[in-house]
UniProtKB/TrEMBL annotation:
Alphabetized Gene3D superfamilies for the sequence: LmbE-like
GO molecular-function terms, A-Z: hydrolase activity, acting on carbon-nitrogen (but not peptide) bonds, in linear amides
SUPFAM superfamilies, per the entry: LmbE-like
InterPro entries for this protein: GlcNAc_PI_deacetylase-related (IPR003737), LmbE-like_dom_sf (IPR024078)
Full protein name: PIG-L family deacetylase
Length: 256
């Protein structure tokens, strides 16, 4: 089967600093599309905040395009919604572009952050809520007919941090994590971690965040960075027992 992957995120760098290696692998296996809600103009990492919002937005847009090339995305769309203000928007401002993207791209799988927001950023949590609404609406033939024919996404995966990994950060930083037992899939991505690092480099204004994390974790960074974990949010779980090797395993029959 050739999987079609749609990634829905709030900010430039979420796709890389989150499931970057998974997306790099999926980008090699089939068509992949990225929809990013903002241009990241509220970024505060390193010198970001001093650059000025409109200039920073332009730089981060270019960084996102470069990173997306490395991760193998076939298309990238930026909605240009207000960074750090997504929760204040009318839900349809986000849901409608998501429904349109789902119906036009027809993904088997959709990736976003866990509803806990990972870094706890409110934009992340808002996007995850809107993804859930959009996936349901995209499959509903009575909803928004003008946005295209209904499409049923096979699975929605939430990129998640297991408690055991979050614990390695000790007091360095607080990540929203989930019990290890709640994780359905952990993928060994050592074969794609170099692409993830290259995409981090492309996010030049933000990469200090990852570099500092790597400094803190030392040799634990490889494990943190090359193994990515997911919780199934919507759709049928993979039919096989035990360890699951891919996010689209068993979806062949459901593919449309
Ligand atoms: Zn973010």
């Amino acid at each position: 089967m050739i999987p079609r992957t749609l990634a829905l995120f709030a900010h430039p760098d979420d796709e890389t600093f989150g499931p970057g290696a998974t997306l790099a692998a999926l980008g090699e296996h089939g068509p992949s599309a990225l929809l990013c809600c903002t241009r990241g103009e509220a970024g505060s990492i390193d010198q970001s905040a001093k650059i000025g919002k409109s200039k920073l937005a332009k730089i981060r847009e270019e960084e996102l395009l470069a990173a997306s090339d490395i991760l193998g995305f076939d298309s990238v769309e930026i909605l240009n919604l207000p960074d750090s203000g997504l929760r204040w928007l009318d839900p349809e401002t986000i849901v409608l572009p998501f429904v349109r993207a789902i119906r036009s791209f027809k993904p088997h799988i959709v990736l976003t952050f866990h509803e806990n927001g990972i870094s706890r950023h409110r934009d992340h949590r808002t996007v995850t809520r809107r993804v859930g609404e959009a996936v349901t609406l995209a499959a509903d033939g009575n909803a928004f007919a003008y946005l295209g024919k209904p499409h049923q996404v096979g699975r929605v995966w939430w990129y998640s941090i297991p408690d055991s990994k979050a614990a390695q950060f000790e007091n360095y930083r607080s990540l929203a994590s989930v019990p290890d037992a709640d994780i359905q899939v952990t993928i060994d991505l050592r074969s794609h971690v170099q692409k993830k690092w290259a995409a981090v480099d492309a996010h030049a204004t933000q990469k200090l965040f990852v570099e500092n994390m790597a400094k803190f974790l030392g040799e634990r960074m490889e494990n943190y960075w090359a193994f990515e974990s997911f919780v199934l949010a919507q759709g049928e779980p993979p039919s096989t027992d035990g360890r699951v090797e891919s996010l689209y395993e068993g979806l062949e029959e459901a593919a449309t």
